[in-house]
Specification:
The complex is a heterodimer. Chain A contains nine helices and no strands. Chain A is an all-alpha fold. The mean pLDDT of chain A is about 85. Chain B is mostly helical. Chain B is built from eight helices and two strands. Chain B has helices at about 5-15, 25-30, 35-55, 65-90, 90-95, 110-120, 125-155, 180-210, and strands spanning about 155, 165. A two-stranded antiparallel ribbon of chain B has the order 1-2. Chain B starts with a helix and ends with a helix. Classes of the chains: A mainly alpha, B mainly alpha. Chains A and B meet through helix 2, helix 4, helix 7 and helix 9 of A and helix 2, helix 4 and helix 8 of B.
């Protein structure tokens, strides 16, 4: 029962109170880059959930069984980024063979995920918070869900920004950032929400 | 190589944050005090120069197909060095930047410069490019920090001039919102708008000069 409550708290935190994009500022590049249309945003979100869950599991295992037991914790950054890059490559090849339809849908987003700070961020945060394996995987999945929630919400706002009337200098990117700021403001409302 | 021209590009017309729109995660996340901004800016500049030099030296050795992976390994090596150095000599900075130091690995500015510049140019030019782009990044961070710190906590130079900095606004006035995540988005949005405006004016002036000639 106790573990269940901990997992619930982690999920709630990762999705709302400490949303990866809007509160922790991880993964802003894809958030800005692929949020012009809602369907591409959904595709990117699903790809991120998938990779974040796998990356949490893989980096947790590598850290626990390889780095900690050999006393090489200082190599974390290098090893994690390599694991993530290899993982993304592997997922890409696997999907291409096994699930061509999903591969078609995710397509170009997969390689981009290697340099998504949310993925490396979740690996590092798992270590920092000294999560167990289950907690790490749940954190990865729900962090990805939080990412998807933010990017899908934002893409629907952004479609309306396209035709609004604003000062010329603000057109395009700056206006999108300001809109994201307002979205972040609304997510701040969740920050009081702690189960612990 | 025209150093002044490159410096101007790094600071304004081709600023990594404000014009190329790269590396925004760290820009918004850590710019709450001047201390953080300068520390992060210097770390990134050092890593950028080192990785640019090494990648430029190895540009003929690295096979084209695995170049991105090779670049990431080189960058991650330098990031680890800086991370360890900061932990040893400037623990306060290491604590306040936290996870954003290791995350320099995936900062698009560094990989972007490696791919766009260092892999095509000589060692000296790449080092200069790293320096000017790094200065541009640091300048953008410092401006963000000064604005956010002034409006958000009413001080200047927290951590640089004593632990609490120089108080400018009385403690009850500042809008706390500006040092929260929201402030990052709003400040960066306004700064990018300003840069776009300045760049447009500059381009117009150039065009006029051309026409008069």
């Amino acid at each position: 029962m106790n573990t269940f409550i901990t997992l619930f708290a982690i999920s709630l935190n990762a999705i709302l109170a400490e949303n990866f994009i809007l509160v922790k500022f991880l993964g802003i590049c894809p958030f800005m880059g692929v949020s012009k249309k809602t369907d591409t945003a959904v595709g990117m979100g699903i790809a991120v959930i998938f990779v974040m869950a796998l990356a949490s599991a893989a980096t947790w295992a590598v850290n626990e069984f390889l780095l900690v037991s050999l006393g090489l914790e200082y190599m974390q950054t290098v090893v994690f980024i390599l694991v993530i890059a290899a993982l993304v490559q592997f997922v890409e090849m696997f999907l291409q063979k096994a699930m061509p339809s999903l591969y078609q849908a995710l397509g170009i987003y997969l390689p981009l995920i290697t340099t998504n700070c949310a993925v490396l961020g979740v690996a590092l945060l798992n270590v920092q918070n000294s999560y167990t394996f289950i907690e790490a995987v749940v954190y990865g999945i729900t962090g990805g869900i939080g990412f998807t929630l933010a990017i899908v919400l934002f893409s629907s706002i952004r479609q309306r920004l396209e035709d609004c009337d604003c000062p010329k200098a603000f057109k395009g990117f700056p206006l999108a950032l300001i809109a994201a700021g307002l979205l972040a403001l609304s997510f701040m409302g969740f920050s009081g929400f702690r189960v612990f | 190589m025209n150093f002044r021209k490159q410096l101007k590009a790094g600071l304004l017309t081709n600023n990594p944050v404000l014009s190329q729109l790269l590396g925004m995660c760290s820009t918004m996340a850590i710019t709450t005090t001047l201390f953080n901004g300068i520390g992060m800016g210097l770390s990134v500049t050092i890593i950028l120069i080192c990785s640019n030099v090494v990648i430029s030296l190895l540009r003929k050795v690295i096979p084209d197909k695995i170049r991105i992976a090779a670049y990431i390994v080189i960058i991650a090596g330098f990031v680890t060095m800086v991370d360890l150095l900061l932990k040893a000599y400037v623990p306060a900075l290491s604590d306040s930047l936290g996870v954003f130091i290791p995350l320099i690995v995936v900062n698009c500015i560094i990989l972007g410069r490696a791919e766009a510049f260092a892999s095509k140019n000589g060692v000296l030019a790449s080092a200069v490019d790293g320096l000017t782009q790094g200065i541009g990044y640091t300048a953008a961070l410092v401006v963000m920090c000064i604005i956010r710190e002034f409006l958000g906590s009413g001080t200047f130079g927290k951590g640089v001039f004593g632990a609490d900095g120089i108080r400018i606004l009385p403690a009850q006035y500042p809008a706390l919102m500006l040092i929260l995540p929201v402030g990052g988005f709003l400040t960066l949005g306004c700064l990018i708008a300003l840069t776009q405006w300045i760049n447009k004016k500059l381009a117009e002036r150039e065009a006029k000069k051309e026409a008069a000639r």
